[in-house]
Inverse folding.
């Protein structure tokens, strides 16, 4: 796209959903970040009320605001459309978590947990991931799910760069997130293969470790889109999820108790 006027520059064609509607851009970092923030706020407004204000980390903010890491979009200005999609998707997920009381679910679940301290860390990871899945499932009910999908793909890709030797609890959760929140209704029709060891010894099948716990977690995703959504109030849905996560982790722990 060729822009004329005070700022004359050429924006290279970039793949990305946002490239179809975002036209107000700048090659100057501080100006581009300001323009991009305004664009993200407009998209997030479609999620609903009481989602807070979208701000960059480091800006003045209040409780309930959505803080985005500017590092996600740093490096090239104007920001490429594919990168904008990721930032928009992250903001959308955070917005749905705000409207569905995710922070309340996390805090109340941890506060009411009777787990030994040694398992609290895994429980916190589980609650956090389950709420990511739930938020993405909420986004999938509209076009906004296409943006949360881009953010999910990017986040999972980043997480896999730091995975240890499998099986790991983190890899299990990210694999579940990848398929459970898939807009196309992704399913596992073949044995699961860990991607963390590709390039070392080829693809090492870990189906014997992951298949059973993943089946358990897939059942949770089904309940989130069926029973949970049938509840009319936000408070009822939040309490439903808290109880579901608590009861599920008691079963999940049997499989992952000794995993890093």
């Amino acid at each position: 796209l060729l822009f004329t006027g005070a700022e004359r520059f050429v924006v290279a064609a970039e793949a990305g959903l946002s490239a179809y509607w975002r036209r107000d851009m700048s090659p100057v970092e501080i100006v581009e970040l300001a323009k991009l923030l305004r664009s993200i706020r407009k998209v997030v407004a479609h999620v609903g009320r009481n989602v807070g204000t979208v701000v960059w980390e480091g800006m003045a903010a209040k409780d309930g605001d959505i803080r985005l890491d500017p590092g996600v979009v740093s490096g090239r200005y104007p920001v490429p459309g594919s990168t904008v999609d990721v930032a928009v998707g992250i903001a959308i997920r955070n917005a749905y978590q705000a409207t569905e009381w995710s922070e309340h679910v996390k805090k109340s679940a941890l506060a009411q947990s009777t787990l030994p301290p040694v398992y609290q860390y895994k429980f916190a990871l589980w609650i956090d991931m389950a709420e990511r899945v739930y938020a993405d499932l909420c986004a999938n009910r509209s076009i906004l799910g296409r943006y949360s999908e881009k953010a999910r793909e990017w986040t999972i890709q980043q997480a896999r760069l730091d995975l240890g030797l499998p099986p790991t609890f983190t890899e299990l959760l990210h694999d579940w997130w990848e398929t459970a929140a898939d807009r196309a209704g992704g399913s596992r029709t073949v044995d699961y293969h860990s991607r963390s060891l590709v390039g070392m010894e080829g693809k090492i099948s870990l189906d014997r470790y992951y298949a059973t716990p993943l089946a358990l977690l897939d059942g949770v995703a089904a309940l989130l889109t069926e029973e949970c959504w049938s509840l009319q109030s936000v408070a009822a849905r939040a309490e439903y999820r808290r109880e579901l996560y608590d009861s599920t982790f008691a079963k999940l722990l049997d499989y992952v108790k000794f995993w890093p």
